[in-house]
Design brief:
About 50% of the residues lie in helices and about 5% in strands. The protein is mainly alpha-helical. It has a two-stranded antiparallel sheet. Strand 1 and strand 2 form a beta hairpin.
């Protein structure tokens, strides 16, 4: 199995570059966008909207499988957060 390339962030923490779960351009700062959005209380709607976005355009960019995996990641993230109680129905 190939090793994933490492990307150096601003705080010099090395992060694996995973184009689906943690793309290098999402982990280049001190906090990922999803973590910020979660902290503002908009995570559930953001995840659901992104899953829809990736599924509706997956055949248009030549990255169909990757976009389906991204949609699954957002749906799974939302489901995990709902199960843990971090997201609630009716929250922002």
């Amino acid at each position: 199995m190939a090793t994933k390339p490492k990307i150096e962030t601003k705080d010099e923490t090395l992060v694996s570059d995973d184009p689906v779960s943690h793309p290098h351009h999402y982990t280049a700062g001190n906090i990922e966008c999803i973590d910020f959005i979660d902290s503002c209380g908009y995570g559930l709607d953001f995840c659901l909207a992104n899953a829809i976005k990736y599924l509706t355009r997956c055949k248009l960019k030549g990255t169909t499988v990757q976009d389906i995996r991204k949609a699954i990641w957002y749906a799974s993230h939302a489901a995990d957060k709902l199960e843990s109680g971090e997201y609630t129905i009716g929250s922002k």
